[in-house]
Amino acid sequence: MSPVLRPTFSDGQVIGASDLNAHVDYDRLALGLHERTEHLWGVASGLSLREIPHTMEGETYCDVELSPGRAVDRLGRAIVAIEPRLLDPRELESRITGAQTETDVYPVFVQALDIEHTGQTRPGKCAVGQVSRIEEGLLISFGAPGSEIPLLEQRPATVNEELGAPPAGDKVLVGWVTWNKKLGRFRTVETSVKGRGVRYVGVVASEVVAGGGALGLRTRPSGARYALTLTENSTGGCELRFGKQDGPLPPSPTFTIDDKGNVTYAGTLSPLPAANVLAESGVIFHGLRLPLPAGVDEDQVSSGKVRLHAVLAPLLQVPASIKASAPIPVVQQCSADVDGDRRVRCIVRWYDLAHPTQDFVELPSACSYLLVASGT
Amino acid sequence: MPTTLYALSFRSSGNILGVCSLGEQKLDDQAAWDALRDRLIGSKLVLTHSRVGPVTKVEQPELPSPKVGHSAPLAQKLSKLEPPAEEVAEFELPAEEVTVDAIAGSIHDVDDVLVNPYTYQVASPVATRPAFPGDGQPKVVTPANAIVKSETFQRPRLTITLQKPLSAQTMAVVLFESGALVRSSPEADLLTVMFLCTAEVGEKYLLFLPGVPVQARVLKA
């Protein structure tokens, strides 16, 4: 039989304690299943360790306080602290065995703890020895250095794993402490060790939909933080933006993409994107413009998105109209302004070396060209 | 990628004004041909006329220097050929007066067409058919070697006389340095074309006539 049992009642039924408890169990089970399947376990709010510094015999030590908060363990069970709790140094001291160095950091865990309470008054019953309330309490424990690693690396619980009977052993890491052996007190609080940190709750979702045209991811709930936002504007467009955010102000536009695909960024691209290169070559006569390679338009050139590079070489074929027995060309001009209208100017002056006193003839001519367009 | 020779010519006469050899273009309609023309000339075609200058001696020969590969005696010879400064006439023809055609078949002297296109014109591959420059049909290149017998200018009349008669449907055009275009039809003798123009003596102009090479001319009284 499935452990997911929804209690149901009928007229005239005598309702016993098990029926009422089944109702409570059903809701708890539903909440646990939701947490373990649609969320990722970790600290949801608060539950941070705070140093309260002291000095004794010229040495500093601290008391450590766990702030109120809530966490969800791997099985979906809520762990709640509604008031600050001081950590007991004797608890840690009892766990320290063998050689201990000043660099040792001890993970601090919390876990759900059921505490049964008796003696609550119930109508029609004088005896109060039975359990009438279960406090969903919190147990703070310490681990050996490095014992948090397997806990952080464990897989999410499956739906049927220990369903309905969460063990007391499911822990959530809330930080680390170091130990002052001489004083038998805590020395410091650490929030991360060798790149490992406290794990916070997450969401399992293949799709997240905003209700009002704006969606945001933020590194902290408030104050100075970083944000990734997706925001529609009043003109029907949309912008994806990443940047630093202070309070309710919009994030700074460190990186943005608009709905037309335009990307702007304040930093530098690394590595730089490979440039696209297109080329066109041929032969062209004086007065014509170097044609842009296929795939490149004038707007790309004028906006600077594409850079042009041209190589021109004049054709020095003797025109049939040159009536000289020893014609020799002198190139007067062979150029094209690639930053302008790319019009080719190719002028060749022809001399007749056999008759050096005769007039020269200057003719427009053709040149071979290679036009390279590069851009991103 | 196959390459094609494209000729830019004067719309009403077929006189070639520029050539370009480039990768074969996909030109399906008139708009595509016009787009190619605009790619190649923009809003206008710049025509530079051939220039003839006298050779004179100069005191300090510098043109060209031996660094560009000439032997010392040749460089010395060339150094004496520095011409006097002379203004170069340039003509600008609006794009709408220019058409572009693909040149089909082999050309007898393609190198000469490339370096001296003003002495050629586009023609229909079928000799008996007239050519319509810019009609999207392939063309051939033929020499433009008709001789202008005389040019006389008595303001405002510019009279051009040819050796051989023109077709009665011919449209003759002159383009002045100022950019003014003047059109006219042959007279009854089909040998004479008369233009009425406001230009002055000494002004340079280009004559566009089928079969006549394009070259700069000067209005002479």
Give a brief rundown of this model.
Chain A is mainly beta.
Description:
The complex is a heterodimer of chains A (376) and B (221). Chain A has 376 residues and is mainly beta. Chain A has 3 domains: 17-203, no CATH class; 214-265; 276-375, no CATH class. Chain A has helices at 17-38, 89-95, 148-153, 298-302, and strands spanning 39-40, 42-46, 49-56, 59-66, 69-72, 78-81, 85-86, 106-118, 131-142, 171-180, 185-190, 192-193, 196-197, 202-203, 214-218, 224-232, 238-246, 255-258, 263-265, 276-285, 306-314, 327-336, 344-352, 360-364, 366-375. In chain A, β16 (224-232) and β17 (238-246) form a beta hairpin. Chain A is elongated, with a radius of gyration of 39 Å. In chain A, 23% of the residues are buried. Chain B is mainly beta and 221 residues long. Chain B has 2 domains: 3-49 and 89-143, no CATH class; 148-218. Chain B is built from 3 helices and 15 strands. Chain B has a 4-stranded antiparallel β-sheet with strand order 12-11-14-15, with no helix packed on it. In chain B, strands 2-1-6 form a 3-stranded antiparallel β-sheet, covered by helices on one side. In chain B, strands 9-10-13 form a 3-stranded antiparallel β-sheet, with no helix packed on it. Chain A binds chain B through residues 280-289, 291-292, 294, 315, 317, 319-321, 328, 330, 341, 343, 347-348, 351, 353, 356-366, and chain B through 3, 8, 17-23, 36, 39-42, 45-48, 50-55, 63-64, 74, 77-78, 80-81, 83, 88, 109, 111-112, 114-117, 119. β24 of chain A pairs antiparallel with β4 (51-53) of chain B.
Interface with most residues: A-B, 37 and 41 residues
Proportion of helical residues of chain B? 10-25%
Q: Output the radius of gyration of chain B.
A: 20 Å
Helix/strand-derived category of chain A reads mainly beta
Q: Span between N and C termini of chain B?
A: 53 Å
Relative helix content of chain A: 10-25%
In what range is the share of β-strand residues of chain A? 35-45%
Q: Which consecutive residue ranges of chain A, at least 5 long each, have pLDDT under 50? A: none
Report how far the terminal alpha carbons of chain A are from each other.
63 Å
What's the total count of β strands of chain B? 15
- Strand order, biggest sheet of chain B? 12-11-14-15
Tell me the strand percentage band of chain B: 35-45%
The computed structural class of chain B is: mainly beta
Q: How large is the count of helical segments of chain A?
A: 4
* Main sheet attributes: strand count, strand direction, barrel closure of chain B: 4 strands, antiparallel
